[in-house]
Amino acid sequence: MKVVIIGASGETGRSIVNGLLESAIEFEITAVSRELSINSKSNDELRKLGVQVVAGDLKDPENDLIRLLTRCDVVISSVTAAALPDQILLSDAAKKAGVGRFIPCFFGPVAPPKGVMKLRETKEDVLNHIKKIYLPYTVIDAGWWYQLSAPRLPSGRIDYGLLAPMERLLGDGSVPSALTHVRDIGRYVARIVADPRTLNKMVFAYNELLTQEQIFDKLEKLSGEKLERSYVSEAELKAEVAKFEELVRNGSTDPMIIQRLWAYQYRYSWGIRGDNTPESAKYLGYLLGKELYPDMDFTTFDGYLKELLDGKARKPYA
Ligand SMILES: NC(=O)c1ccc[n+]([C@@H]2O[C@H](COP(=O)([O-])OP(=O)(O)OC[C@H]3O[C@@H](n4cnc5c(N)ncnc54)[C@H](OP(=O)(O)O)[C@@H]3O)[C@@H](O)[C@H]2O)c1
C-alpha cells in the first residue's frame, strides 16, 4: 500500500512511520518535508528506516504534490498546529490526484466540532472542506498523550521525561479521560488506514480511560513517593479560558497567547466537561478502536510510568 505522510518528521509522524513499518501489511512510505528541513536529523533517521523523503510545499501544492500523490493509496497529514489550515490546499491536491483515502491531522482528544476548542475548530474546517470536495477520508483521534498526563515527583526523578507535568488536578480530579502512549498512535493508524470499515468515518483509538486522581494514585504506588495534590476549580479554569479567548478575540496573534488559549481549552474540555471519553465519541459519531480491534496490544499507563521510573522514557520533541 502506497502511503504519503506530511509531517513524518514530527512527534506524531514518527509514531505513524514506526507503526506502519511494524505492521504485517506492507506499506511503501514517502515523507513530504519542507525544503528548509529536508536535511534535518529527523529526516535522516527516516531515510535510515527506508522512508523516501522528498521536499514539498503545502502552500503551493499544485505542481509538486499532485504528481507525488498520484497513484497513492493513503495520504496522512500529521503537521504541526501552525500548518493545519494549509491542509485545505493539500486536500484539493489529493482530490485531483485521485488519492484513495486522506487522513487529515486530528490525533487529539475527542470534543464537539465547534464552541469548545479553537484548535479543534481549525481541524473541523479542514474536515468540512474535505467533505465539500467528496475526498475519501478517515479522521483518527487518539485521546490525550500519556506523555502530557503525569505529574512531577518530589524527588525530581522523572523530570527528564516529562514534557508538561500535570501540576494541579482539574476540578475534583474525578473526570475520566482517554489516554494513549504517543508510540501506540502509529500502530492504531496502521490498522485503521487498511480497514474498509473506517472509510469516510471518524475513529477514536485510545489505550486507557483514567481520572487524574487515578493517575496520581498509580504514580504514588509505583514510585513509593507521596504527591501533594492541589486543585484548580472549574471557575478558575473557566476564567483563564475566558481571559485568553478575549485576548484572541481582540486580535492578539501572539503565539504564546494562542498556545495558552489552546492549553486551557484542552484542559477544560477533557478535565471538566469530560469530552474525551468513549461515550462522547460514540454520541459524536465515532467508531471505537476498542470495538474495531479488540485484539490490539498497547502500552498500559502503568507500563509507561515504569518506563519513566526506570529512566527509559523519551521526552517528546526532544
Ligand atoms: N493527543 C495529544 O495529546 C496531542 C499532543 C500533541 C499534538 N497532538 C496533535 O498531533 C498532531 C501533530 O502534532 P505534532 O506535535 O506531532 O507535530 P510536530 O511534531 O509539531 O510537527 C510535525 C511536522 O510538521 C511539519 N511542518 C509543516 N509546516 C510547519 C510549520 N509551518 N512549522 C513547523 N513545522 C511544520 C514539520 O515537518 P518538516 O519540518 O519535515 O516539514 C514537523 O516535523 C496535531 O494535530 C496536534 O494537535 C496531539
Automatic annotation (TrEMBL):
Domain NmrA-like: 2-241
Domain of life: Eukaryota
InterPro entries, alphabetized: NAD(P)-bd_dom_sf (IPR036291), NmrA-like (IPR008030), NmrA/Isoflavone_reductase-like (IPR051609), PCBER-like (IPR045312)
Coiled coil segments of this chain: none
Biological source species: Lipomyces tetrasporus
Keywords attached to this entry: NADP, Oxidoreductase
The name this protein goes by in its record: Pinoresinol-lariciresinol reductase 3
One Pfam family matching this protein: NmrA
Gene Ontology terms, MF aspect: oxidoreductase activity
